[in-house]
C-alpha cells in the first residue's frame, strides 16, 4: 500500500483497565488524548497514530524529530522507557515485549532525511523477546516501502547498550555509537543514534540515509485492509 504523501493523522484515545493481552489502538474512538493501557506489571501509556489508508491505529513505540531527548542511555533506561509521549520518546523494551508477545504484530518505520525526503518501510512481523533473552529482535519479512531493506541485518540480534554489550563485534558498538540498539557488528540501521543537525554517517541512520526524523509504529497484523 502506498501511503499518500505519508499523511499521518496523529490522534489518540484514553482507555482504562486494559492490559497487554488486548490490542492497543485498534477499533478505538479517535480522541485527542493519550491511550492508557493497564498491564500486569503496572501502567503504560501509549500514543496512537492513525495513518491514511489504514483502518486501525498504530502504537508508536519510538519517536524522534528534534534531538530534545538524549538517547545515550543505560540498559535500565532502555528497559523502562524514557522521554515524553507528546515529544521524543522510547516506550521501553519491557513494555514492547509484553505488548508484542500477545501478537502477531507488524512494524512500520516512518522517516525523513535532511533533504526532507519522506521514507517508510514495513515488516510483516515484529516482536521483542524477554529480558532473559536480552530483548532479542524477532523481525519478519520486508513487505513494502520506498527505501531499501536495511533492518533485516539486525534480525535475531540481542539489544545492546554501553553497559550491556551483546553485539557480535570484538568492541562495544553501543559505546562507540553512543546509543542502545540491536547491534550486530555494528549496524545498517540505528534509529537511536546521536541526533545531529547535519549529515553524519555514524549518527541516526537507515542504510546510507542520515535521518532527522524517525518513528517506529506497531499494530496487530492484518490479513487485509
TrEMBL record:
Residues 1-18 form the signal peptide. One of its GO terms (cellular component) is fibrinogen complex. It is found in: Secreted. GO terms for biological process: positive regulation of heterotypic cell-cell adhesion. InterPro entries: FIB_ANG-like (IPR037579), Fibrinogen-like_C (IPR036056), Fibrinogen_a/b/g_C_1 (IPR014716), Fibrinogen_a/b/g_C_dom (IPR002181). It comes from the Eukaryota. PROSITE patterns: FIBRINOGEN_C_2. One of its GO terms (molecular function) is extracellular matrix structural constituent. Keywords: Disulfide bond, Glycoprotein, Secreted, Signal. The keyword Disulfide bond applies. It holds the Pfam family Fibrinogen_C. Residues 16-195 form the Fibrinogen C-terminal domain. This is Putative ficolin. It comes from Aedes albopictus.
Amino acid at each position: 500500500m502506498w501511503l499518500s504523501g505519508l499523511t499521518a493523522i496523529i490522534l489518540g484515545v484514553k482507555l482504562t483497565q486494559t492490559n497487554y493481552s488486548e490490542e492497543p489502538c485498534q477499533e478505538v474512538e479517535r480522541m485527542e488524548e493519550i491511550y492508557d493501557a493497564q498491564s500486569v506489571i503496572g501502567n503504560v501509556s501509549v500514543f496512537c497514530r492513525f495513518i491514511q489508508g489504514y483502518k486501525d491505529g498504530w502504537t508508536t513505540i519510538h519517536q524522534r524529530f528534534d534531538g530534545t531527548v538524549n538517547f545515550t542511555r543505560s540498559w535500565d533506561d532502555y528497559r523502562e522507557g524514557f522521554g515524553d509521549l507528546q515529544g521524543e520518546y522510547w516506550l521501553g523494551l519491557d513494555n514492547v515485549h509484553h505488548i508484542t508477545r500477545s501478537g502477531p504484530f507488524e512494524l512500520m518505520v516512518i522517516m525523513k532525511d535532511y533533504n526532507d525526503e519522506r521514507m517508510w518501510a514495513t515488516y510483516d512481523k515484529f516482536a521483542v523477546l524477554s529480558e532473559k533473552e536480552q530483548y532479542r529482535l524477532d523481525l519478519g519479512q520486508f513487505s513494502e516501502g520506498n527505501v531499501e531493506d536495511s533492518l533485516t541485518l539486525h534480525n535475531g540480534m540481542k539489544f545492546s547498550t554501553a553497559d550491556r554489550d551483546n553485539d557480535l563485534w570484538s568492541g562495544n558498538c553501543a559505546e562507540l555509537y553512543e546509543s542502545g540498539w540491536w547491534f550486530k557488528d555494528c549496524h545498517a540501521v540505528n534509529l537511536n543514534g546521536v541526533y545531529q543537525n547535519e549529515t553524519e554517517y555514524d549518527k541516526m541512520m537507515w542504510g546510507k540515509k542520515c535521518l532527522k526524523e524517525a518513528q517506529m509504529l506497531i499494530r496487530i497484523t492484518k490479513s487485509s485492509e
